[in-house]
Amino acid sequence: MMNAISQASQALNVTSVQNSSVQALSSEQMTVIEETLAQFDADSLNSTDALSIVESFSEAGITPGKALEDAMSVAGFDARSVGELARGENAGQSMPPPPRAEGDVQALNISDDQLSELSELLTSYYDEGSSEDKESLLATIQQMIQEAAPESGLVDVLA
To answer: How far is residue 15's CA from residue 67's CA, in Å, rounded to a whole number?
Structure first.
């Protein structure tokens, strides 16, 4: 089975180069797929096994797509079934985002009046013709956002 996956890997990489909408799998990713699937029997897969497969692929940076589907198919696994099995009772439903810890997120400190003014400024910015007017509007918009931004900033660059 490992040899069949390796052969499929070469074919997939050629196909992926030909079709830009298909993400090519690296040799390292193909190795992860081979080693991960070799641990399981496609005919007796349970939700715990499927979740383990999905987590292994995710940790390796392997995203769902045609190349992964083809590689799994060569090994005797149906990618869609594995994904559904991994979701378990939530199959067909989207997964909720992970919960945020208290104090994790800071928002703009902006009043309704300021929000309305900001909206008007943005509308004017897109409606204005001269670049001088746009520069002035943009400076005003930036100042409003800077004043309303939390101390830690709007973007957490450490996340």
So the answer is: 9
101 within some domain: no
- With b for 16 or more beta-carbon neighbours within 10 A and e for fewer, the 41-63 pattern comes to eeeebeeebbebbbebbeebebe
Query: What does the pLDDT average to over 91-96?
Result: 52
The reply to whether the predicted model has a pTM over 0.85 is no
Largest pairwise CA distance in the chain = 68
The CB-based long-range contact list for 55-64 (8 Å cut-off, 24+ gap) reads 56/32, 57/32, 57/33, 60/28, 60/29, 60/32, 61/29, 62/25, 62/29, 62/32, 62/33, 63/23
Q: Is 83 in the same domain as 110?
A: no
d(CA 50, CA 56) in angstroms, rounded, equals 10
- Domain of residue 149 covers 106-159
Domain's final residue, options 63, 90, 117: 90
In this structure, how many other beta carbons lie within 10 angstroms of the beta carbon of residue 5? Answer: 22
Instruction: Give pLDDT, residue 102.
Output: 53
